[in-house]
Amino acid sequence: MTPIPGRNSPRKPMALARQRTLLLSSLLFLLCVCQGLLSSLRDAVIITSSDGGVGSIPFIQVWVLVPGALFVISLFSKLTKKVGREKAAYIVITSFLSYFLLFAWLLHPHAEQIQLTSLAIWMRRWVPNGVDGFVVMIENWSPTLYYAVCELWAASIILFFFWGIVNEMTKCEEAQRIYGTLQLGATLAPMAAGFVANLLIQHTYNPSLPYGRSPWEQTLITETLLVVTLGVIALILFRELLRNHTLQENDEKNGTATMSLKRCFRQLYRNRFIGYLAIFVSSYSVILLTTDLLWKDHMRRTMAEPQEMLGVMNTAMWFAGMLSVVGALATPSLVCKQGWTRLAIISPLLISISTALFFFTFYFGETLASYHFLGIQDPALYAVYAGAFQVSICKACRFSVGSSAKEIALSAMPTRLKWSGKAAIDTVGTQVAKAGTSIVHQLAILAFGSIFGALPFLSSGVILTLCAWAIATKLAGHDYRRLASKQKSYNEALYRS
Q1: What are the b/e assignments for 63-99, b being 16+ CB within 10 Å?
Q2: In this structure, is residue 9 part of a structural domain?
Q3: At a CB cut-off of 8 Å and minimum separation 6, what does 134 contact?
Q4: Is the residue at 497 inside a domain?
Q5: Digits of tens for pLDDT over the chain (497 positions)?
Q6: Pick from 169, 171, 168: which is nearest to 484 by CA?
Q7: What is the Cα 156 distance to its own chain's centre?
């Protein structure tokens, strides 16, 4: 991107590039720390909101998250046209942070008073037992909305907005060199978030804190204040980043394509490369949603206190961060020496192994406990720990090699297609995949009576998804090599001219 005239004295290109990389890494680190904290908080809030809290998650994915994702994309597109992309980003991020404060200080402490209990009683007279999660979703509308907004932070702010800016600023040949460095910020974030979150957990009531009526409320408010503080710092870094780089606006004057929903769906349907990448990215969501649902349902039946579940999830997040660091450090060498396809295939391979281990503990937990394997006597704990390991592997691959592979692939696309292609993959495509997976979960719960009863059916779906993932990765690798070669030839011709 070209420097903004008059803001800074001229600098050498290498110095500006180093400054940009440092700012982007720091910005991504802060955004991902916020996401790590919000991820554990949202799960603890929804799981402990009622006995059927876990069962409401598939319904939230369909009936709240999909409309929410479409709304955020439409809002951002309209704001961009009116006030520009920079101001639109400030408005959207500030709105997210304001809601988190509103929930922690006002909505959650009065959750019981604002429940739609009467409506839920009426609905339970007419709906079958298998869709009780839908009733719980409506009855506990405040935790439902909180879960959705926390999820949209990752989909909208990190996946769409942040990486969209990076792809606009970065050429294909630069991406292979710096994306591993950028991902280092994302991979360190889960370790930092898990460590700090465990320190902030209040196991007993602390009267010295001026807020909260219980240890859980104090924990929620404290971590929310940390999220808002980090979000404000991220906005300051974003402003500093734009002192030396300007964003192209998506309007008709410069010929850049707008990010309409219609265009996003058209990209998924017509562009083969984007379609393969959508399968590549969506497979993460399909597998993680399924195994995460089984894991959380198992934890709900094994653990009673939200702080206890929060501690397990924070530890899993820390472990995911540690694995992500290894993946991020290895990414530059892997993509340069082994190529994009071999880098991308690492994710489905590792997730296949960890998922097989997780399902094994469900089926053979009693057998392992009879031999006191690893010194554990409670068979339920095997699935808890194996689930934590599987979720950690999924998130580690997503934060490191998987995310880098996707962003490197997107950098090979023409500039006019990067934003709409990214919106199609990260927001529309991912949310459609989540919605489809959640619909399958709802039907499975209705048919088999419970989440655990649908285990054989769900495990078969995971196996099919892993196969589709591997095939899409191989096909995307062929298209990436073609696009990267074409962009390299264009840049060389431009340099010679």
Answers
A1: bbbbebbbebbeebbebbbeebbeebbeebbeebbeb
A2: no
A3: 56, 59, 63, 127, 442
A4: no
A5: 444 444 444 455 666 667 777 888 888 889 989 988 998 899 888 888 776 667 788 888 888 887 887 788 788 778 888 887 778 888 888 999 999 999 999 999 888 888 888 888 888 888 776 677 888 899 999 999 999 999 888 777 876 677 767 766 666 556 556 665 676 677 788 888 888 888 888 888 888 888 888 888 999 999 999 999 999 999 998 888 777 665 555 444 333 344 555 566 666 666 778 888 888 888 888 998 899 888 888 887 787 677 778 888 888 888 888 888 888 778 777 877 778 888 889 889 999 999 999 988 888 887 887 777 777 777 778 888 898 999 899 888 887 788 778 878 877 776 666 666 776 776 666 777 877 888 888 888 888 877 878 888 888 889 999 999 999 998 888 888 887 777 655 454 444 55
A6: 171
A7: 9
Intra-chain end-to-end CA distance of the chain, in Å: 19
d(CA 404, CA 346): 12
Does residue 365 sit within a domain?
Answer: yes
Indicate the SS3 state at residue 1.
coil
Residue 193 domain boundaries: 18-246+258-490
Q: Which of 179, 195, 239 is nearest to 407 (CA)?
A: 179
Query: Distance (Å, rounded) from C-alpha 438 to C-alpha 430?
Result: 12
pTM value > 0.85: no
Give the CATH number, domain containing residue 240: 1.20.1250.20
Return left, alpha or beta for 206; rule: phi > 0 is left, psi -120 to 50 is alpha, else beta.
beta
